[in-house]
Amino acid sequence: GIDPNFDSNREKVGEEELDELRSSASETEFGDGVDVWGPVEPPEKLGIHGTHVAVDYDLCVADGACLENCPVDVFTWVETPGHPESERKVEPTREDQCIDCMLCVDICPVDAIDVDGS
Ligand code: SF4
Ligand code: F3S
Questions:
Q1: Counting atoms of ligand 1 from 1, which one is nearest the CA of 69?
Q2: CA 100 – ligand 1 centroid, Å
Q3: What does the mean pLDDT of the chain come to?
Q4: Which domains are delineated in the chain?
Q5: Is the dihedral of CA 103, 114, 108, 91 positive or negative?
Q6: What's the pLDDT tens digit per position in 74-86?
Q7: Contact at 8 Å (CB) between 71 and 98?
Q8: In this structure, are residues 47 and 91 in contact, taking their beta carbons and an 8 Å threshold?
Q9: Which pLDDT score, from 0 to 100, does residue 25 have?
Q10: How far is the CA of 57 from the centre of ligand 2 (A)?
Q11: In angstroms, what is the span from residue 65 Cα to ligand 2's centroid?
């Protein structure tokens, strides 16, 4: 599953590098305003997205239970064509709305989500 200590074990991808990734030939979407923790090498390696609600893109298999069941609609789909696990992922776009219910953490079949609420 996701490393709960990702924020000390990984480095945050800078805004400049994120802008480059967004405008590069890669079709992978990188949401605005969500931190990304590297390493990132599209399309195969996409890092961990978010900080309070963090999704390991390299583990997510696009199950969708997190997005469908989150009571405050934190997640949105983004396209990740060419990623070995799945061609879309959930971005924690509204992580600031999270009420720390832990439902997404418990429901994800591959333990791809960490919520730093407890
Ligand atoms: Fe949504 Fe609950 Fe997960 Fe927060 S912990 S993102 S509120 S399901
Ligand atoms: Fe992905 Fe797990 Fe959600 S596989 S779509 S993070 S339930």
A1: 8
A2: 5
A3: 95
A4: 6-115 (3.30.70.20)
A5: positive
A6: 999 999 999 999 9
A7: no
A8: no
A9: 81
A10: 9
A11: 6
